[in-house]
Amino acid sequence: MLTATKELPLSLRLTEDQMLIQETIAEIAQKEFAPRAAEIDKNHRFPRENWDLLAASEVCGLPIPEEYGGAGLDHVSYAIVVEELAKNCATTSVMYSAHVSLCATPIYLMGNEEQKKRFLPPMCRGEKMGAFALSEPGTGSDSAAATCMATLKGDHYILNGAKNWITNGIEADYYLVIAQTDRSQRHKGLIALVVEKDSPGFTFGKLEDKLGIKGSSTCQIMFDNTPVPVENVLGKPGEGFKVAMMTLDGGRIGIAAQAVGIAQGAWDHAYRYAKEREAFGKTINNLQAIRFMFSEMQTEIDAARLLTYHASVAQDRGEKFTREAAHAKLYASEVAMRSTVKCVQIFGGYGYVTDYPAERYMRDAKITEIYEGTSEIQRLVIANSLLKE
Amino acid sequence: MSTNWQPPPPPPRPNMPPQGGAGGGPAPAPGNAAAQEAKDLSLYELLQVDRNAHSTIIRYAYRYLAAMYHPDNSETGDAEKFRIITDAWKTLSDEIRRQAYDMTLAVQDASKPQAAKGPGASQFGRDSLPKFERTSLTWNEVELRIAVLQVLLAARRKKPATGGCSGKMLMDILQIDDVRDIEFALWYLREKSMIETGERSFMITAVGLDYLTGELSKTQILDGGNTTEKRTAPTVNAGLPAVLGK
Ligand SMILES: Cc1cc2nc3c(=O)[nH]c(=O)nc-3n(C[C@H](O)[C@H](O)[C@H](O)COP(=O)(O)OP(=O)(O)OC[C@H]3O[C@@H](n4cnc5c(N)ncnc54)[C@H](O)[C@@H]3O)c2cc1C
Fold it and tell me: Is the ipTM of this complex over 0.85?
């Protein structure tokens, strides 16, 4: 076994703090987010009020140390929060995880002291929302082929080009943008910059009309001679690829947690339904075929959750966790898809209509197999890490 | 969860009062010191929650701190702190009392606008009311009317259609103990159509708002203290343009 030399978190028991945050967020999400989830999905509405509530709950900077305004908690707690949100409203979990793991965390990890002091406190307070811009119209998985250009002119970089599929698109305030300084250099030419919303020449395309997570704001962002001060460069020029990969490692834990949440949320709905619905004189939760579905789903969900916590623990220990995160994201997202399809099946005809939540969970699940590296890319990452000869 | 759950002390947070002595260390701060500290903090700060925190957060925060300070907790128990946070919890856990308390905070905010506001500080505090002060033990009649109108205005601004306060809330906010004081003022204001009665609450009318606007310029002069400072201080009328602009 390749991992046998590593200490595995064999007996994963949540700490009191982790249980407390789980209970708290679970309760708020059930009370406040779940009742609105269907409406948000139907109207494609960005739930700003959910964001405000997360801000008031002081979780917008959850893993960021307290000296920068965060809560200074561990990444297992972070995964727990994302999961509880996704169980009830996937849109809310997406907006939250993009802010925390795709923007605040990389600024914390790669930013200098001045940048951290400037950007993080308002982000942790929820006054400023973060976004991450790597994908482009012409290139997604192959991020080194980025064509959005950053040209140094005096003490500013001038940005030109477009970024696609930006989560929190129109709503965010800070955008962590990965741009190209020299195309011939491919990934060695990339640079990471924090672009602020009202910068000159910074505009937005139309909102995407998506299959799921419909309330989340996804759009193209465009730069036309947008000046970005050199103080906003994260790390050194040429380290953009490193920043992006580091960001995605952490982000994938968020997506894995989201997938686990969607799967568990679907399971919970299906179970409630199965206890009520009767067929052939008994409630369907007594039918063996249905019981087996529940068993299979829960086995996979638990395994996915353990992989997610495992990656989070590795991250908290300060180890390299690229492969752990890829394992978790790959497996959890595929589990989310399988589980939500089963959930629709358990609901029968009612699973196929929007009066019940089953179909929404199935639509929301699909994105977890795509963004922050598709399942194919996760397999590639895992293979590259496992099979380096 | 098990019922005899005892959380560890929470990690220290910014803006929080220093904790009593750690286990094995020096004895916890004497009770009256804790009470003194508590006086300077809002109930939200005492429970270490945001001003806009969801009721669930407040409940969990209290549960957490209560378990820590409960006198039965041999390591971190502190009867005085327990009493203080329990008092805070009694107010913040009751929706009506919390609302009434929020209004007193808004009034305090208005009288010290330069103080940095937390992110969650209610927006209603930000462009809030002009300051008014108690000048004697019983309210001077005119001042009391103005104070009542200001409180009702704050409630109305929060909820334009139905916002108001009960007589009890007014008494709490204005710290009036004798019901006759407030009854008399309410009688006057109703006779003059400056307030109207809603369902178990009083609400300011447009006439009341106009009266308040007119009266406020006078109170600046009537209100004792340094006049030059008053005139230059933006505090006095800070809220008004916003009020009228709405
Ligand atoms: C709702 C939504 C939100 C998003 N949010 C963000 C965001 O906030 N920031 C951001 O930067 N991006 C975001 N994205 C973009 C997302 O990360 C990309 O869509 C994703 O990385 C895939 O890129 P692509 O769409 O260009 O697909 P392509 O790269 O064109 O891939 C097409 C297909 O080919 C496969 N493929 C590609 N290369 C390989 C290979 N080497 N081996 C095997 N198979 C391969 C892929 O797996 C996929 O099946 C978001 C996307 C969506 C839909």
Answer: no
